[in-house]
Structure formats: C-alpha cells, structure tokens
Amino acid sequence: MKTRTGFLFLIIFLVNNIVFSQIPNSGFETWTNPNGYNIPDSWGNLNPVTTTAGVYTCLKGTPGSPGAAYLKLVSKTVTGMDVQPGIAVSGALNTTTFQGISGFAYSDRPTSMKGKWQFMANGSDQGYISLYLTKWDAGQNMRDTIGELKYLLPGMVMSWQSFTLPITYNNTEIPDSAMIIFSASGNVPVDGSYLYIDNLSFFGGTVGLQDKPDQGSLIIFPNPVVQDNLLIDVKNHDLTMSSIDVLDFGGKIVIRKELKNQVFPISIDVSSLVAGGYFLRVNSSEGTFSRKFIKQ
Fold first, then answer.
1. Rounded CA gap, 130 and 108, in Å?
2. Whole-angstrom Cα distance, residue 208 to residue 219?
C-alpha cells in the first residue's frame, strides 16, 4: 500500500534488538513556551492556531505517570473556528486538514507501541491513535507504508492504565521513518472529549532478521469465523513457530497457544471470544507476523 505523504528526514537511526524508547519526547517531559503557551517538543498541535482565541487543545498535564508531565489533549470550542480537536502528531501537523505531514527517523520493526493513557469521549465522539511506519520509494517518488496501527478509543478510561497496541505489517521491508497521531476526537469533534498520554515506547524490535516471514504466507480461515475453531496455515511448512497469540484491539492477549508440534492446519479454539475484531499473531524463528480476523 502506498501513501503520498512527502516526509523529509535528514537522519536515520539504526536500531538493534528490542527498542524501548526511540520516540522523541516519549515521556512528554520537555515543553517550550514560545508565545505564552506550552507546546511539547517534537509534537505538532493546534495551539499556534487557537492561541488567537486564547484557547489551547494541547496542554501540559502534571504530574506524569511517571515523571513530571504528560500530554493532555482536549477538544474545545474556539470562537470563530467551531470545535477544534485535541490532536498531536510526532512531527509536523497540517492545522487545516488535521493530517500529519512529517514524522521522525526510525528504522526498526517493533511488534507493538506501549504507553499509559486516560480518555473519555463526549457524546458519540470517538478519538483514535494511529501509527505509520514508512519508507521512501525513490522509483515511485512516494512513501511506502511498511506497517501501521489504527485504534479507535472505546468507552472511557478514567485513571491511568497501561496499554499495548499491536502493529500490523504490509510487507517485509525496514522502514526509515515513523509518525504517531493522537486525537481526542473523530471526524466531528465534540467539546470536552479528552485523551491523556504518557510513557510511550516501541517494543519488540526485529532489525537484524534478514529473512522475515512474508505476511502473505500466513493463511487463516474461515474469516469471519462463525464456528468454534480458527484454522491457521502457512505456505512454508518448514517455518518454526513457537506460539500463536490472539489479541483484542486494545493489544491485550486474550488467547495464547504454545506450539510443541506443528501439524498443519493448526486449530485454535476461539469459542470464548465475544463477537468483534481481533489480531492473530504468529511468533516464529524468523520473526513475528499477523493477520486481522472477525469473530461473529
């Protein structure tokens, strides 16, 4: 999948093994005050636009969890601008379209993004978290999306809780950049919706694995699954699998199957799952790869 976002980066960090924190200002401890209002270093937001009305949707919350500060995003009504979303992007933000236009240099394939959050939607509003890992394709003169994460915030979390969100990969390439978007609101912002974020990190880097499994080699059926069992197969039966996980969209492992003997197709009992969407993650000697599926 291609995305025509024209990111420009000067430095590419080479990351090895597990990555615990390669996100700029990941703990939101560093803020500047350019014109009488706070902005988190390395994170684009709407404060430079809404300051004309004396309203700020990106705030420095204290204390952090852990640390002295956290990112506090609150959607607010701004005179002459309607409701503006509490939104922040790890890089630069287009303040008209609310789309990210740049990110930060990054060259690993983490399995998940972790952190702490609080959030609440006002009315039917629904915030979201997005992550795009991309690589510049000089031949096509555009960015290729290597991996991504898209998560809609469900319900509410009124006190600090840890989260782990799985990253899905589209191919086996190594990215050269990353962009994270946090938004307290969806397409139609509602005043009062909020999202607090702190203590971000990537987890489970895989740089150094030259022969990563092809996402297309993983076959799951039926999908949607309406019976008790989901069947898993791979094109390369020589691939050594250690375990298979089923994760909900919040990144929580709800089923884990340890594999001692590989007899294909592998069957997983999903009768305990409620209807909805899930990630199937295969952990193997050649890396980690995943597929989405629906339980009906």
1. 17
2. 25
State the CATH architecture for 215-295. Answer: Sandwich (2.60)
pLDDT single digits (tens) 58-110: 999 999 999 999 999 999 999 999 999 999 999 988 888 888 888 988 888 89
Q: What is the token pair recorded at 110?
A: 């983490």
Least confident of 13-17, 130-134, 184-188: 13-17
- C-alpha to C-alpha distance for 18 and 109, rounded to whole angstroms: 9
Backbone angles phi, psi at 291, to 5 degrees: -145, 150
70, two tokens: 């956290």
Q: What is the pTM of this model?
A: 0.66
Report the pLDDT averaged over residues 238-258.
81
Q: Which of 119, 23, 28, 21 is nearest to 69 (CA)?
A: 28
Is residue 266 within 8 Å of 244, Cβ to Cβ?
yes
Work out the mean pLDDT of the chain and round it to a whole number: 84
Q: Which residues, at least 6 apart from 207, have a Cβ–Cβ distance to it below 8 Å?
A: 14, 15, 16, 17, 107, 108, 109, 174
Q: Answer whether CATH 2.60.120.890 is correct for domain 12-203.
A: yes
**Alpha carbon 132 to chain centroid distance?**
7
Q: What pLDDT is stored for residue 21 in this prediction?
A: 41
List % helix, strand, coil for the chain (3-state, nearest 5).
5, 45, 50
Domain ranges across the chain: 12-203, 215-295
- The alpha carbon torsion through 249, 251, 256, 262 (nearest 10 deg) reads 80
Work out whether the CA dihedral 87, 91, 92, 94 comes out positive or negative: negative
The reply to whether 215-295 shares the fold of 12-203 is no
For residue 173, give every residue at least 6 positions away whose Cβ sits within 8 Å of its Cβ, in sequence order, or none: 135, 144, 146
Is there a contact between 56 and 37 (Cβ–Cβ < 8 Å)?
A: yes
